[in-house]
Amino acid sequence: MPHIAAPEGVPGIVGLMHFRPETAAPLNALAEVLLRGPSTLSRGERELIASFVSTRNDCTFCSSAHSAFAAAQLEDGKAVTKAVCSDYKNAPVSEKLKTLLAIAEQVQRGGKNVTTALIASARAAGATDIEIHDAVLIAAAFCMYNRYVDGLAATTPTDPAVYEGIATMIVKDGYTSTTPR
Fold first, then answer.
1. How far apart (Å, rounded) are the C-alpha atoms in residues 161 and 144?
2. At the topology level of CATH, where does 12-175 sit?
3. Cβ atoms 134, 35 nearer than 8 A
4. Could you tell me the residue ranges of all domains in the chain?
């Protein structure tokens, strides 16, 4: 049961956004830019970073949602997402993405844990400054989103079909489509 009067039957962060729509617009706009805007990283790769950080933060709603969003946008998506979230170093993703996940892992632990060696490793694997920037900001933003969802005890469905349904909508219409009007 949520700690606030979120609407019944509207799960996770979406329910919280319905409680306070004026905060929903900037939160969704940030997610839209980071996860769906122009980038040399695919939408699926960016969703993997969000899923990975959410899994590390033990945020069931965000981990389930963004795992479904990543899976819907990657070849062999469910298996890749599961592999990244359990052992990214051995997951079937590019070395560049592994280095960005290593950076995201350190951001999740605390921003000052990102070292020049991690940045150099990402650059050596072909990551651009924009990709490094976005990996850091995705990880930082998802620490915030995860704490928002869990801090207010948002409703968290257990049925994977719920997240797959949300994924269909997000992949088609984007994050701003969930902003309450």
1. 25
2. AhpD-like (1.20.1290)
3. no
4. 12-175
Tell which residue, 19, 68, 22, has the closest CA to residue 48.
Answer: 68
Give the pair of three-digit tokens for residue 64: 């389930």
For residues 155 and 12, the answer to whether their CB atoms sit within 8 Å is: yes
pLDDT tens per residue across span 78-132: 999 999 999 999 999 999 999 999 999 999 999 999 999 999 999 999 999 999 9
Q: Using CA atoms, how far apart are residues 41 and 152, in angstroms rounded to an integer?
A: 32
User: And the tokens for 68?
Assistant: 């479904």
Q: Is the dihedral of CA 158, 55, 29, 97 positive or negative?
A: negative
